[in-house]
Amino acid sequence: MKALEWKVFLALFFILAFSCQTQTDKKDMTDLDNNKFTGAKGEVKLMTLDPGHFHAGLVQKFMYDQIDPVVNVFAPDGPDVNEHLARIEAFNNRVDSPTGWKEKVYRGSDFFEKMISERPGNVVVISGNNAKKTEYIRDAIAAGINVLADKPMVITPEEFDMLKDAFRLANEKGVLLYDIMTERYEITTILQKTLSQMPDIFGQLETGSLENPAVTKESVHHFFKYVSGSALIRPAWFFDVTQQGEGIVDVTTHLVDLIQWECFPEEIIDYENEVEVLTASRWPTKLTPAQFNKVTGLDQYPDYLVRDVANDSMLHVYANGEINYKIKGIHAKASVIWNFQAPEGAKDTHYSIMRGTKANLIIRQEKEQNYKPTLYVEPVEGTDWETLEESLTTGIDKINQQYPGVALEKSQNGWIVVIPDKYKLGHEAHFTQVTERYLEYLKEGKLPDWEVPNMLAKYYITTQAFIRSKL
Questions:
Q1: Cα separation of 188 and 428, whole Å?
Q2: Which helix (H) or strand (E) holds 415?
Q3: What is the tens place of the pLDDT at every residue in 269-313?
Q4: 280 class by beta-carbon count within 10 Å (0-12 exposed, 13-18 middle, 19+ buried)
Q5: Pick from 5, 100, 297, 382: CA 20 to 30 A from residue 220's CA?
Q6: Euclidean distance between CA atoms 46 and 48, whole angstroms
Q7: What is the pTM of this model?
């Protein structure tokens, strides 16, 4: 090659390289611009990834000004995505407050790769089969996409490091990773937390012991239930603990989250130095073939569930678990139970007690409470009732500044906090509240300082409990 030709070649090479780099820089800048939110109408372009769990649909039960009505869905073909689309269609066609979502759907085995390559949105909702959820979360974050994930974000101890990596990448990419903690929006829990921060009423949180924890949270759930007025059809994989996760790493995420959120509000928890899992246990819920058919619509167990079927044809699902642990020196217990179906008139139930030096704050939700969560304030031995009632009256007056109409009623062991029905929004409405809070965080460009370390602490507790339950 002659000298002049060589110079021309080099010049063309550098021009081409510069052009490619410019295009890359433009793409990177576009990615950054996509994550600069102002609260403007329609600026959030939502994507839904493999929506195998009905929680994905509940995020869209109502509309949001900040979210564009066009939602891109990426999923493998099959009943899971069909159920999701039917749920969205029902929201669009209901008589009261119909939504106006427009679902654009890609069906194919390469659904995740397709979402990453096309990227028609800047926020993805991940709520479905948990087997690869942590991997999807990490890779979506690595691609510069904001993630709103259903719980649990991790179901095995091996995936915990992957979640840590996802949060590291989120910080580098300037995107937000957040999980859907609906129970923070339940009014009795909100008021339990509020009263626990009033020393004249609650005193100080007890330290507790393994046998008598300072805080206990228990929940009972049901495989067969009604959602938005229709019988819920669950996918068969929901009963496979390698795909859904055992109960000790699934629903307990809510309970562990509430313990942190209520006992140590806005405090950063260092899971490496301030958390110790003491004991953990697991046990199965047994389903008959008829029960399995009722909740899935399937006449027989899929091959991947056969290993969990006993000689009597009962399916053993390890959906139940209990964790006893210490957090910042406080003894706590979280336990979850799954039954097949609730008694007549009942739904999923919750029990919670925070033990204070002056009073215990207890949420009960049994037949006596008509299966509705009810908050009690019960003095401990040695507390003067008259003085406590005066303090409690003052505390309720303060609460009325934010929640007008909250009142007190005498009970056998103390007082009932009477809460107007207008504050009892229900589990499904809480998904809207979580999404609205997430939209606020997107606009602010960050999560509160305590959220990420406390999400890590939560999943550290559940995954360490998973290990201990197998010992």
A1: 16
A2: strand 414-418
A3: 999 999 999 999 999 999 999 999 999 999 999 999 999 999 999
A4: buried
A5: 297
A6: 7
A7: 0.91
